[in-house]
Write a structure and sequence with these properties.
Oligomer: single chain
Strand content: 15-25%
Distance between the termini: 11 Å
CATH superfamily: Aldolase class I
Radius of gyration: 16 Å
Structural class: alpha/beta
Number of domains: 1
CATH architecture: Alpha-Beta Barrel
Helix content: 25-40%
Largest sheet: 8 strands, parallel
Shape: globular
Number of helices: 8
Amino acid sequence: MEIKVYPSLLSADLLNMERSIEIVKDLSDALHVDIMDGHFVPNLSYGPSLVKALRNRYSIPLNVHLMVEKPENFVDMFIEAGASHLGFHVEATHHPQRLLKYIRDHNIRPFITLNPATPLNTIEYLLGELDMVLIMTVNPGYGGQEFLHFSLKKIKSLREMAVKEGINLDIMVDGGIDLHTAPLVIEAGANVLISGNSIFNSENPREVIIKMKSIRYKEV
């Protein structure tokens, strides 16, 4: 399975974001944009205006991660802004299947995100509606946190569930993903690496992406 890398703009140079993107865009499979509301997570970040500006400037897919309460109140503005993938936390809404269908009906790939302590049985009956799941490997809200190793068991279990159901699932991981933890999550079954600090705060962001993509994936 192909390993994909989505650089996380949360760690890009805020005053030189275009320059940060230009360095990595041709090696990136998508750009990851974290949307925080200060309620679901204790931080604030970007809004639809950034997604719209990125869409107007770049053709690269935009992977938009809503870390917000009641994501059903936010999806329309990010659909209109030009998100390519649009995801929300299963913990944040009462009707995840309805919201997944709504996003897909607007020709956008939906995904569901799980916090580190959220069990997989919360999405067991939704796998047929999904081709992307994001497993948080830190508690969401801030960049630069330490990788939570117990997430590896969840990644492995999710890959086994997908294989059993015959689902070609992109398993994304976000939080503490660097050249030390990337081989661990890939071995567990992840195939999409979302990484911010490790890429944008390195001396050679392009080299980091190339090395991440060169890690071998072993089929379950």
